[in-house]
Amino acid sequence: MRRLLELLDGELEAFYRDEHPFYVPRYTPVMKALAEAGDLTIKEIAERSSVSHSAASQTVSKLAGHGLVSLQPDEDRRGRRVRLTAEGEALLPWLKRRWAATNAAAQELNRELDYLLSTVLAQAILRLEQRSFSERIRRHEEDQGDKA
Fold first, then answer.
1. Which of 9, 51, 83, 126 could form a disulfide with 55 if both were Cys (CB 3.0 to 4.6 A apart)?
2. C-alpha span between 115 and 126 (Å, rounded)
3. Please, which residues bridge with residue 41 across strands?
4. What's the CA gap between 29 and 55, in Å, rounded?
5. Would you call 32 exposed, middle or buried from its count of C-beta atoms within 10 A (0-12, 13-18, 19+)?
6. Edge-to-edge order in the sheet of strand 39-41
7. Which residues have a Cβ under 8 Å from the Cβ of 99 and sit 6 or more positions away?
8. Distance separating alpha carbons of residues 63 and 23, to the nearest angstrom
């Protein structure tokens, strides 16, 4: 699994780095959510992009550091809303081309495999959300203890 991630994510990162050295693939879910919705809270970003609240918050901080997003107090001043800056908006056409090319490359890879990678990954995620990998490991450790 680690090797697959290295081959996919590592090359994707290099692909972005060619033109925008600061941009990394982990920014994509947040940038896509903001591109689609305009402005969102961090909680909304996390929900829309299927990442944890912590991951969304960290990514927003990084994007703000690059000047791609700004944070404004929301209506009741208890939270903050995140929106793309002019620099973030200007980056979107380039990103959308990269995202389209990435999706096309993923579809091409899927066609070359015996099993659809996207389906296998979705099933694995679903099963791990139902019962975590650590729970599975513990069960097998207990089974080994019973055999000793």
1. 51
2. 17
3. 81
4. 11
5. middle
6. 39-41, 80-84, 69-73
7. 28, 32
8. 9
Token representation of residue 126: 């679903």
Write the single-letter amino acid at 120: V
64: which residues sit within 8 A by CB, 6+ positions away? 70, 71
Q: Which CATH architecture has domain 2-91?
A: Orthogonal Bundle (1.10)
Count of helix runs (H) and strand runs (E) in the chain: 8, 3
3-class DSSP assignment, residue 66? coil
Which run of H or E residues covers position 97? Answer: helix 86-112
Q: What is the pLDDT of residues 67-103, one digit of tens each?
A: 999 999 877 777 789 999 999 999 999 999 999 999 9
What residue spans define the domains of the chain? 2-91
- CA–CA separation, 140 vs 148, rounded Å? 13
pTM as predicted: 0.79
